Amino acid sequence: MIFVYNLILILLYPFYIILSSIHPKAKLFRETRKEGKKRIQSFLTTFKDQKKIWLHASSAGELEQALAIYRVLKENHPEIPILITVFSLSVKTIDKLPSEGKAYLPLDFFWQWNFKDFNVQIFITFTWDTFPNLLSKLKKRNCKTYLCSAAIDANSYRIKYAPLFRFFYENFDGIGVVDEENLKNFKKLFYKEIHITGDSRYDSIIYKLENSNISKMDLEKLKLGKEFIIFASTYKECDLQLYPHLRRIFDLYPKIKVWIFPHHVEKERIQETIYHLNQNHIQEILLYSDSNFKKKYKHAKIVVVDQLGILAHAYKFSKICYVGGGFTLRIHNT
Question: What sections of the chain are H helices per DSSP?
Fold first, then answer.
């Protein structure tokens, strides 16, 4: 199956090159992969005579999992340099990561992994991200490879067609799954060491709550919301399903306000959120970043939070929380 996998990648490669030459986001993606490969090589060269650990996270949620493991590793082995890679461009603060190396991961073309001094002792990837060519290369270098905080839906195509996708996992030395249900799912894909180890994201969230301080201004804003409902990590489908019912909620409970935390806070997503609210005849909208937030708050029905880092602190102030993602793929992490 690895042959078929690589054949598909080779066939797709010309389209990738063409798309990255005409589409701005695809161009940015390709540029970050080129830069990522240089950064990985630089890390390997800089620490070529030392033991090294490589942690990989697909997106922001998986990065929280990786950082939890990173902190444990550094606490016990501060002398070991660690490389953290991410895949999604939604992770925009990559240079702020605390590790000795940080990079966007290149695509899994088999020719990508021809690094000089390619000597890593442990590679850990999180939740579901697997790269068969990279894993194969690492195993040939006697690297121990693991999938951590692993989760997969029972309806996933990888489970439905398990014989076709077992090669994605064959080069792992072990898999740690989040719960009993996922243990059953992964046993259909992996026959070696597999255990329930939990989700390291919880450790990361607890760490952030214990070590991050919310600003006085943000705390004052949250305290204004004596009775509010949270819509957390909302996607477009959440807007379409929920917003038609908001006016009825406000009619039944006039004092209630709704604070919406879109999953992404880019300008386009914030505008999309406001557009869908307006489509459902809701105009009393206040942006969290508004300079006159305190004065305008009492007249608003909706607060759209266009700033990161607030949600984890906001949960304890709310009456009811809805967490998005369930209408599309899976409920997002809280």
Answer: 2-22, 24-46, 60-76, 132-140, 157-160, 162-165, 180-186, 200-211, 216-224, 236-242, 246-252, 267-279, 293-297, 311-314
Q: Are 63 and 91 in contact (CB under 8 A)?
A: yes
**Which one is predicted more confidently, 128 or 53?**
53
pTM: 0.78
> Alpha-carbon distance 223 to 264, whole Å?
24
β-pairing, 320-323 with 257-262?
A: unpaired
- pLDDT band, residue 334 (cuts 50/70/90): low
Cβ pair 134, 6 in contact under 8 A: no
Q: How many CA atoms lie within 13 A of 321 on its CB side?
A: 17
Question: Which pLDDT score is estimated for 329?
Answer: 67
Tokens of 277: 């609210």
Parallel, antiparallel or unpaired: strands 144-150 and 174-177: parallel
> Hey, which residues does 260 pair with through a beta bridge?
231, 304
**DSSP summary character for residue 84:** E
Relative to beta strand 320-323, strand 228-234 is parallel
Residue 169 gets which letter from DSSP? T
C-alpha–C-alpha distance, residues 238 and 235, integer Å: 5
Say which amino acid occupies 74.
K
The residue type of 83 is L
Residue 100 DSSP class = S
Cα–Cα distance for residue pair 230/323, rounded to 1 Å: 8
- Residue 322 to residue 233: CA distance in whole angstroms: 9
Q: Which tens digits make up the pLDDT trace of 260-313?
A: 999 888 899 999 999 999 999 999 999 999 999 999 998 999 999 999 888 888
3-class DSSP assignment, residue 325: coil
